[in-house]
Amino acid sequence: MKLYYMPGACSLASHIVLEWLGKPYETHKLSRDELKGPEFLKINPLGAVPALADGDWTLTQNVAILEYLAEQAPQSKLMGDGSARSRAEVRRWLGFINSDLHKTFSLVFAPMRFLSEEGAQKELAANASKLLSKLFAQLDAQLAGKSYLVGADPSVADAYLYVVLTWAHGKQVDLTGLDNLAAFFKRMQENGGVKAARKAEGLE
Ligand SMILES: N[C@@H](CCC(=O)N[C@@H](CS)C(=O)NCC(=O)O)C(=O)O
After folding, report:
1. Quick check: CB of 62 below 6 Å from ligand 1?
2. What is the structure's pLDDT at 204?
């Protein structure tokens, strides 16, 4: 399998899970220019990472890739503890992180995509950042008394949560008082797969 990624982007979640799987894999690092270049647009017409090639087949979309990777090791806890409810819980948090958090980050990272006037862009980014604080508070509540989002073991949703938390730190999203999230972040920073993926992406 080959993962197309940009350092520190959402593709880092799949990179972490590939490390957790412990099977051989390849990576292809993309620059911003290559992301929108003709070669990669054939792989993902959106010009976005992640993309995962498996033989002659390529998959895009974070959530689909993360779940596909988890299915490579059905005996693992990457999609929960094996029960339908636990799998559904992992999907719940994957959906929350992908559709609510990740999309809101787009407004913080690139408000100029949505508005042309500089003052309006600043207002949009500031309001989006406030919304992110509220969304992260829900994740903090979910982590109360738990090491990971669903159960005692890390799932693919935790890998994705770790990545959006690195963005929150980079963009100074207010996470004051979200102590469960802070402990989660520390735990993940110490995880072997997280460390290996970060090192491979040149983030250490
Ligand atoms: N819906 C897509 C979004 C992927 C996405 O937003 N990727 C970002 C990096 S985190 C990207 O490549 N952005 C480049 C761009 O949109 O120009 C998914 O979940 O895979």
Report:
1. yes
2. 84
Q: Which atom of ligand 1 is nearest to the CA of 98?
A: 19
pLDDT less than 50: residues of the chain: none
State in Å: Cα 157 to ligand 1 middle. Answer: 17
Q: Going by CATH, does the domain composed of 2-76+195-200 fall within 3.40.630.10?
A: no
Rounded to an integer, what distance in angstroms lies between the CA atom of residue 98 and that of residue 10?
A: 9
Alpha helices in 4-155 (DSSP H): 11-21, 32-35, 38-43, 62-71, 84-95, 103-109, 118-142
* CATH architecture of structural domain 84-191: Up-down Bundle (1.20)
The candidate with the shortest Cα–Cα distance to 164, out of 11, 47, 17, 61, is: 11
State the pTM of this model.
0.97
Residues 70, 103, 8, 39, CA torsion sign: positive
Ligand 1 atom nearest the C-alpha of 48 is 12
| Binding site membership of 166 for ligand 1 (Cβ less than 6 Å) | no
The domain segmentation of the chain, as residue ranges, is 2-76+195-200, 84-191
Residue whose CA is at the smallest distance from ligand 1 atom 9: 9
**How far is the C-alpha of 192 from the C-alpha of 132, rounded, in Å?**
28
Cα separation, 92 vs 97, whole angstroms: 9
